[in-house]
Amino acid sequence: MSLTREYFLADMVKKHGMRRFAELGLWKGRTFFHLLDTCPDLSMIGVDAWIKRPGNLAPGAETYKAWNMDGLRAHVTTKAKDYGDRARILIMETSDAAPLIEDGSLCGVFIDADHSEAGCRRDIELWRPKLKPGGLLSGHDIDWPTVKAAVKDLVPEFQVATDNVWWTHV
């Protein structure tokens, strides 16, 4: 059985002594909380708007029509309180959150938000500068053609890990 993304990321965090990490697109918080639980020296910033997008018609875009966004947001924000200052949740678009984070301040970023090519491209472009030299730029769903197109163009040196994770050090 191959490891899931949260185990791969936890291994990378531990191996490289990462202290500050951001995840874009939290959904239920599975990866976010796993990293907080298994990496006690890590502080996390989680970004998700938790809004339905019925008009999303771009290839790779999701509408989230069937998801209980209010319930997902409430679950993650409530659970995050258990981690105190180690967990910061930003309820907003990833593009609106990027200016709030200082360039060169993060050890890692995991992109799993807008899966359209334009959305993935935007997140890579906006969040790569937030990384320290040698930081981990990573994301999920490299098997999606839209994600792969953006990653191949902007991160040509990327590698593929378990669970459709793409990654590189910057």
Q: Mind telling me the C-alpha Rg? A: 15 Å
What is the level 1 CATH name? Alpha Beta
What is the total domain count? 1
What summary fits the major beta sheet? Answer: 7 strands, mixed
Mean pLDDT score, rounded?
A: 92
Q: Fraction of residues in helices?
A: 25-40%
- Note the beta-strand portion: 15-25%
Gross morphology is: globular
Low-confidence stretches: none
Task: Give the beta-strand count.
Answer: 7
Order of helices and strands: HEHEHEHEHEHEE
The CATH homologous superfamily name equals: Vaccinia Virus protein VP39
Q: Output the structural class.
A: alpha/beta
Q: Count up the helices.
A: 6
CATH A-level architecture? 3-Layer(aba) Sandwich
Short descriptors:
Rossmann fold; 170 residues; 7-stranded mixed β-sheet; alpha/beta
Please describe what this structure looks like.
The protein is α/β, with parallel strands linked by helices. It has one domain: 3-Layer(aba) Sandwich (Rossmann fold), CATH 3.40.50.150. Helix content is 34%, strand content 21%. The protein contains 6 helices and 7 strands, in the order αβαβαβαβαβαββ. It has helices at 5-16, 30-38, 69-80, 94-97, 117-127, 145-154, and strands at residues 20-24, 43-47, 87-90, 106-111, 131-139, 159-160, 166-169. The protein has a 7-stranded mixed sheet, sandwiched between helices. The longest helix is centred in the N-terminal third of the chain and has 12 residues, at 5-16. It is globular, with a radius of gyration of 15 Å.
